[in-house]
């Protein structure tokens, strides 16, 4: 619902396995890798990079294929869990693996793979609508690797480095979040600022550079629970926001009693 607001990308939601079977082949036929993610998860569990393999074992990266891939088409896949290796399988076998993510009210998100993943992910920590700090990390779970690379030789994730909200290289991203994207989300979803979480974060990858050579940002995911650890710079704002919420609850209680 928010993919058109400036932080979005080529992203879709599948509410059923049948829907994925109908729509994913056309996206794979375009020749670019996709990332399929279970709706809620952590640690890379249920996050899969998927790419169509053309005849001769090559990646299908030379434009749109003449026919949609079928159940027996070969795809190259890799889960984002630590130590997972890249492998090839039939598309129908992949569907069978992903079926468990649609149990109950489950669903999956389908995003275009971002080639600049190798430059790291930037996590923006927010208190309500204010950016209160950053984390930057080399996320290597889906880092490009040669097929058959042993798990022990895969590039490992780097440490997450925490920074205050004043970090110079992230000011453009901070301004876009606070002045454009978060207010736009609030208007679209009819959310008051106080309804936003006291502490939440938005994860961004670098997108393609624009016509002027400037960086663009692509929303990777949003976390609204278990948002820890976080930068020390966030602590005063968390305390202030929590105090305001508690006072507001107490005030409503007093009015209700009178």
Please describe the structure with a list of short key phrases separated by commas or semicolons.
5-stranded antiparallel β-sheet, 6-stranded antiparallel β-sheet, globular, 258 residues, 4 helices, 24% helix, alpha+beta, single chain
Structure description:
This protein is α+β, with helices and mostly antiparallel strands and 258 residues long. The protein has helices spanning 17-29, 91-98, 171-189, 235-257, and strands at 11-14, 34-38, 47-52, 74-79, 87-90, 108-112, 121-127, 130-137, 161-163, 200-207, 216-223. Strands 1-6-2-3-4-5 form a six-stranded antiparallel sheet. The chain has a five-stranded antiparallel sheet with strand order 9-8-7-10-11. The chain is globular and about 70 Å long.
Cross-sheet strand order for the largest sheet: 1-6-2-3-4-5
Tell me the fraction of residues in β-strands, as a range. Answer: 15-25%
Largest sheet: 6 strands, antiparallel
Helix content: 10-25%
Gyration radius, rounded = 21 Å
The computed structural class is alpha+beta
Pattern of helices and strands: EHEEEEHEEEEHEEH
Average pLDDT level: 88
Distinct helical segment count: 4
The low-confidence runs, each spanning 5 or more residues with pLDDT under 50, are none
| N-to-C CA distance | 42 Å
| Inertia-based shape | globular
The overall strand count is 11
What's this, in brief?
With 258 residues, this protein is of the alpha+beta class. Helices cover 24% and strands 25% of the residues.
